[in-house]
Every structure is written in structure tokens, then in C-alpha cells.
Sugar ABC transporter permease (Intrasporangium oryzae NRRL B-24470), 330 residues
Amino acid sequence: MSAPQPVIVTDEPATGSGSGGPRAESPAPAALPARAKRRGRRVPLLLIVPTLALLVVALGYPVCWQLATSFKHFGMLQQFGQPPEWVGLDNYKAIVTDPDLWAVVARSIAFCLVSALTTVAIGGGLALLMQAVGRVTRIILQLALLLAWAMPVVASMTVWVWLVDWRRGLLNWLLVRLGVDAEGHNWLAEPLSFFVVAAVIVVWMSVPFVALSIYAGLTQVSTEVLEAAQIDGAGGWQRLRYIIVPLIAPVLSIVLLLQLIWDLRVFTQIKILQDAGGVANETDLLGTFVYRLGTGAGDFGTASAVSVFMLALTVALSWYYVRSIMKEES
């Protein structure tokens, strides 16, 4: 009788179909992270494809049509069905040498900067106020801002035109009651007072969005950090300047960038005020200037060239903020 053979126990699990089957080799440790990293890069790209496709469909065709139209001449014959004449860069040469365009550009940039900075300043103050008051007062203030923001532009402009009307407006009536000689004064006849009224209206319509956006950023500021700064002796202005503003700087950059873009292409408010008594030639901004060239004079080629110039100007003014936001993201 032979001696029993010893049983050898190993820690390696059997992986084959039988006792003698080969073991499957596991992938290299570095292969899994590399594969996961490649998959992680593809997922964001796949997620933004629908948005990019929608932007190309919604914006690509109008922009391409406008660019092509800017190289053509539209006159009286084109209103009777004749095809427009290809003129190349003649429309751009005409607008560059047009002094009226540069006067409109200067007015538009000044109006844009003043309105945007004023809107962000007032909106930031209202956001700080909402953070300081109680819950009931804050809800009432937020509802008031939402109602002002949700009001249609034409409906609100009807009220504003009545307020500044030179015959039966509330502004003149109130000034007369206060002892100011404003009987029959037309606030829209002079360019300076016209743009003051327009800026007030634009700021009033834009403040709710800015205030609510900045308030949302303020809610993310840690109260522990502010309490620690207060214990260290920092006053209210120091906490605002050195702690709150740097922490909500991305929100401020976004809302300021959006306001610059919106205020540069403002149209409805200016056009309605012009129809209510303003002098169009002296109060045109880029939006109304393009409208007057295209719809008013039928010169769609020159109007398209000004629109392309307006797009380039918008990119130039907002490029600094876009670059700052990209640096913060990176």
C-alpha cells in the first residue's frame, strides 16, 4: 500500500473551465485608468453635441445669411424683384467712412457702459439688502423684482411714456406741484434728457435679474468666514471688499458681461421713446440705426454690414470678461 500524496493548497483561484485550464490574464493596472480617462473626456463632448447642433441650426443660418447680404447692394430695383448686385466690400467701406456711424457707435458704447455699470451697482445693493432683511421682507422684495422683470417690454414702455409725456405726464405734474417750472417740458426732445430717461428705463428692467443672480451668489458665501473676519476686527466695508466681492467675482463677471451685451444691442426701449417724441437722428443707437437703414431705407446690404460690425464690437467689448472667465474655469 503506497503512502498518501500530500495535498498542496495555493491561494490562487482557479479560473479555467477545468482543473487544468489556463488562467485569464487580468488587464494591466494602467490600462483601466487610461480607458476611464478617455471615456471621461468623451462624455462631456457627447453631452454638448445637442446644444451645439441647436445653436448651429438656430443661429448659423441667420448669421451666414446676414454675412452674405452684407456683400450685396439693395436698392429700388430689388423691391420689384430684381436680384441684388454683388458689391464685395463696398458696404463696409461706406460705413467705415460714414461719420454718422461713428457718432452712433460712440453713443452706443457710452450708453452701454453707463447702463451696465449702474445696473450691476444697484443690483448688488439690492442683493445685499435682501441678505440683510428678514424673511418676510426678503420674499416681498423678491416678488416685486420678479413682477418687474416679468412685465412685457411694450406694456412697461407704455407706462413709462405716459410718465414722461410732456402734455399729461406724471413727472411734469409732480415737478410743478413741487414748485419746478416744468409745465409742458418735453423730456424726449433733447438728446441728453432722452438718454437719461432711456437709461433709467433700461436699468429698471435689468436690475431684477442682476439682483437675484448676485443674491444667489451671496447665499454661497460661508457665514463662518464672515464671522471670523468680524471677530478679527474687519468692518462691514472691509468684509464686503476683501471677502464677499472676491468670493462672488465669477457671478459679478457673468452678469456684467451679459449686461454689456444686452445694453449694447438695446432696441425696443429706444425705438418706442423715439416714436413718442425723440429725434431719431440725434438719439440713434446701433440697434435703431440698423433698423433705420434696413426697414426704413430698404438698404439691407449696408444694414447687414453694420450688424456684422456690431457683432465684432460686442465681441471686442466682452472679450476681456470672457478671457477672465476662461482663466477662472481653467
Observations:
- The two ends are 79 Å apart (CA to CA).
- The longest strand covers residues 72-73.
